[in-house]
């Protein structure tokens, strides 16, 4: 069961003002709390750091920001700009008498600066302004909604990854196999045979033989075959053998009737494996995108027209993410007919 994360809101405002402090304690903080959001003011955080570094840290850790522009504090503008630069949504507030300039305000401390006065600023009249509380809540609800949806989706994804990691290796491999079978069935592919290959690697847990599952498109003899391996050994001798069979036979079916048919060889590792590692083992394969390699058959293939393609997915983080990546690979290499 995942713990629901509470949003954090950095509040930038003038310090040393009884009016601002009262507004914060009476309206801003209770409104945030009512929405399930923790409010943070740097002057109320105990720390032993340089104030600027602490402000940067708090803003980077927050999900959104409130910037009250009352009294035109340069630090507030700076913190709001830093938050926007970090992609954090900023809700601007100000006392309502700061929208028009004053003749006696030569320093401009009683007027919102021109570069932000076109923003949809939430105005307030006093710390007891009930309408401000209503409008602030409405604005914060609007701004925080997509953030909460994103966090909810991430929490769900984290739970799916945790569930997948909790499975045994055999269960993970079985889940991968089912996903591939269903995806290929949607492209009219069906199981043809399982080809066993001897393994001379004593370090491999299933030392003895390894099975490759072969699929073909129903009633379409010209369609490329699909061969699937889940967590195969990564020894040089094994991959040299696989590479030679693909290069000279076109596929791994081991059936004389199917020799010369082009194929896509799909390799899935439930644990992290380097694509560059396999690329080094398959010297005759040239890169074709981030996850695919295509066999360079110049002068090697005994069967003309057979161009095997190798696609690798590693690692499998969750069933949902695997299905998405698998769909991308199949759409690229096996377009629907």
Percent of sequence in beta strands: 15-25%
Q: What class, by secondary structure content?
A: alpha/beta
Task: Walk across the major sheet and give the strand order.
Answer: 6-7-8-9-12-11-10
Mean pLDDT: 82
Radius of gyration: 31 Å
Distance between the termini: 43 Å
- What sort of overall outline do the alpha carbons produce when their principal axes are compared? elongated
Largest sheet: 7 strands, mixed
Show unreliable segments: 204-209, 296-303
Q: Order of helices and strands, N to C?
A: EHEHEHEEHHEEEHEHEEEH
**How many distinct helices?**
8
Can you give the helix content as a percent range? 25-40%
Overall number of strands: 12
Description:
- This protein has 337 residues and is an alpha/beta fold.
- The protein is built from 8 helices and 12 strands.
- It has helices at residues 18-34, 51-61, 74-85, 130-165, 169-185, 236-249, 275-281, 319-333, and strands at residues 7-12, 37-40, 64-68, 90-95, 122-124, 189-198, 209-217, 225-230, 263-268, 285-287, 292-295, 309-313.
- The strands form 2 sheets. A 7-stranded mixed β-sheet has the order 6-7-8-9-12-11-10, covered by helices on one side. A 5-stranded parallel β-sheet has the order 2-1-3-4-5, with helices on both faces.
- β3, α3 (74-85) and β4 (90-95) form a beta-alpha-beta unit.
- The longest helix is centred in the middle third of the chain and has 36 residues, at 130-165.
- The protein is elongated, with a radius of gyration of 31 Å.
């Amino acid at each position: 069961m995942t713990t629901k994360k509470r949003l954090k809101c950095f509040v930038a405002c003038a310090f040393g003002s009884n009016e601002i402090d009262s507004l914060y304690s009476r309206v801003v903080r209770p409104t945030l709390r009512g929405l399930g959001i923790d409010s943070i003011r740097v002057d109320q955080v105990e720390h032993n750091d340089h104030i600027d570094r602490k402000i940067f840290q708090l803003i980077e850790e927050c999900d959104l920001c409130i910037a009250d522009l009352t009294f035109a504090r340069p630090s507030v503008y700076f913190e709001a700009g830093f938050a926007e630069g970090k992609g954090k949504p900023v809700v601007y507030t100000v006392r309502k008498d700061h929208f028009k300039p004053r003749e006696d305000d030569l320093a401009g401390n009683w007027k919102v600066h021109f570069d932000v006065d076109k923003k949809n600023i939430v105005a307030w009249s006093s710390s007891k302004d009930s309408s401000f509380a209503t409008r602030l809540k409405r604005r914060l609800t609007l701004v925080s909604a997509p953030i909460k949806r994103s966090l909810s989706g991430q929490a769900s994804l984290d739970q799916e990854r945790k569930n997948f990691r909790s499975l045994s290796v055999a269960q993970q491999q079985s889940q991968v196999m089912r996903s591939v079978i269903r995806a290929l069935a949607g492209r009219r592919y069906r199981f043809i045979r399982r080809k066993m290959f001897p393994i001379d690697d004593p370090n491999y847990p299933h030392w003895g033989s390894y099975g490759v599952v072969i699929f073909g498109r129903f009633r379409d003899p010209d369609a490329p075959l699909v061969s699937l391996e889940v967590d195969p050994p990564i020894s040089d001798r094994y991959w040299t053998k696989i590479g030679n069979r693909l290069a000279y036979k076109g596929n791994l079916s081991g059936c004389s009737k199917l020799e010369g048919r082009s194929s896509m060889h799909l390799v899935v590792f439930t644990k992290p494996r380097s694509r560059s590692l396999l690329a080094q083992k398959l010297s005759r394969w040239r890169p074709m995108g981030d996850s695919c390699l295509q066999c360079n058959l110049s002068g090697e293939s005994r069967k003309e027209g057979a161009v095997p393609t190798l696609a690798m997915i590693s690692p499998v983080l969750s069933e949902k993410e695997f299905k998405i990546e698998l769909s991308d690979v199949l759409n690229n290499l096996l377009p629907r007919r």
